[in-house]
Amino acid sequence: MELTFAAATDVGRQRQHNEDNFLIDKKLRLFMVADGMGGHAAGEIASSIAVHEIRDAIYQNRDLIERYRVDDPGVQPIEILQVLEHAIQAACTSVYNRAQAEPDKRGMGTTASVLLIAGAPDHLRGFIAHVGDSRIYLARQSQSHQLTEDHSLMNELVRRGKLKRDQIDNSPYKQFKNAVTRAVGVYASVEVDTFDFDILPGDRLMLSSDGLYVYLEDDKIPQLLADGDVKDVPRRLIELANAGGGHDNITSVVIRVGDVPAAEASPSKSGDVSLKLEVLKSMQMFRYLSYRELVRVMNITESLEVGPDEPIFHEGQAGDAMYVVMSGTVKLSKTETTIAELGKGQHFGEMSLVDRSVRSLTATSVGATRLAVVRRKDFYDIIRKEPDLAVKLLWSFVQVLGTRLRKTTSDLSDALHGEKHGIDTTAENLFQD
C-alpha cells in the first residue's frame, strides 16, 4: 500500500505569529502536528522542540520498527506504542527544562499528535500517541472517524454530561474554549494516550490543529481528503479555515493509502478487518462504543476458523472466552438436544468474561465457520485501562443479561402455564369419562 502525503501550515487571520509545527519523516513514515502555547513566541519554541525530540527518540528505535516491518514475531504492537509514548515523555522533559531555564518561557507547552505507520507493505498498521486537542482523523468507506480524544476542558465537560456540544458557544465556559487539560512540557511528565489500528487500502488520514478542524464538518472530511492531488489538499483546507474566520494558526498533514498491487495483495486482510468491525458494531453488547473504542475491542479479538461439525467447546469444560460468529453457523446443545443455532453477529459464552464457571452447553459448528474470540484476560485488561470504555461495556453487558433473564422468565412462565393447562385438561377428560 503506497503512501502519498502532503502538509501545510498557516498563521491564520487573527494571530501575529505561527505557534504550530509539523514534521514528516518519509523514511520512518512518521507524521506529527504540534500546536504550541505560552506567549512571547514560547509556544512556537515548545512545538518545535517537541516535534524534533519526538522524531529523534523514535529514530533511535528504528531497528525495532524495522523488525516489526519484516514481521518479526518477537515484536508486538505494544512495544511500538511504548516507543511513541517514551518519545513524547522525552519531549515533555526537554520542553519543561527549557522553560525552567528561561523565566520568560515558564508554563509554555504544546499539543502533540503523532502517527507512525509501520509494517509490511501489504499489512500496514497505524500507531498513535497523543496529548492535547490537536486531532487525527481516519476517512474510510465514506465515513469520518476521530481517532484521538481531545484533552480539553470543553470535551471533559461534555464527557461528564455537564454540557452538550451545541451549547458550548452560549455557555459560561465559553472563555475557556481553548483550554487544554493536558500538554507536553507544562510539567516534567504527561499522561499519553496511545492507540493502534489496521490500515486498509483506500484509507485517508489527516492530522490537524484545532485552528482547522473547528471549521470542518465530519461528514465532509472524506470527500475533502479524497479530491484532487494530495499535494493540494492541505492548502485547500487552510483556505477553507481562513474563509471561515481563521481564528487560530492552521496546520494540516494529509496521508493517502493506495491499493495493494494485485501480485502482493493479501485478500483476506481487508475483508477480515471490515467484517469484524461490521459484526461487532451490530452487536447489542458494543452498540454504545465509538469507532475508536470499537477498534480497541477488535484489537483484543482472535480469529478462529472452525471446520464443519467441529466442536468449539463441550458442556462441563472451564470457560475463558466469549465467541462471536463472523460467518457460518454454530449449534448450541445440551445432552445432545439442540437448544439454539446462531448465525452471523450472534455471540455465546459471554458469561466466561465475568466468572470462571464451567460451560453449561456444547458448541459445535454446523458448517465451515469463522469466529472472533474475546479472552477473559484481555477483556479485564481493557476494562482496567479504559474506564470510559469499561462503563459502556459493562452497562451493555448488564442489558444483554437482563434481556436474556426476561426471556428465560417468560419461557419458564409459558412452560408452567402449559403444564398447568395440561393437568386441567387431563382432569376434565377423566371427569367426563
Can you describe this structure?
With 433 residues, the chain is an alpha+beta fold. The chain has two domains: 3-264, Phosphatase 2c, domain 1; 268-385, Jelly Rolls. The protein is 37% helix and 26% strand. The chain has eleven helices and 19 strands. The protein has helices at 42-59, 62-69, 77-101, 153-159, 210-213, 221-226, 233-243, 267-282, 291-299, 376-385, 387-432, and strands spanning 3-10, 20-25, 30-37, 109-110, 112-120, 123-131, 135-140, 143-146, 193-198, 204-208, 250-257, 301-306, 311-313, 321-327, 330-334, 337-342, 347-348, 362-365, 369-375. Strands 2, 3, 4, 5, 6 and 9 form a six-stranded antiparallel β-sheet that branches. A five-stranded antiparallel β-sheet has the order 1-11-10-7-8. Strand 2 and strand 3 form a beta hairpin. Helix 1 (42-59) packs antiparallel against helix 3 (77-101) and helix 10 packs across helix 11. The longest helix has 46 residues, at 387-432. The radius of gyration is 27 Å and the shape is elongated. Mean pLDDT is 89; it is low at 426-433.
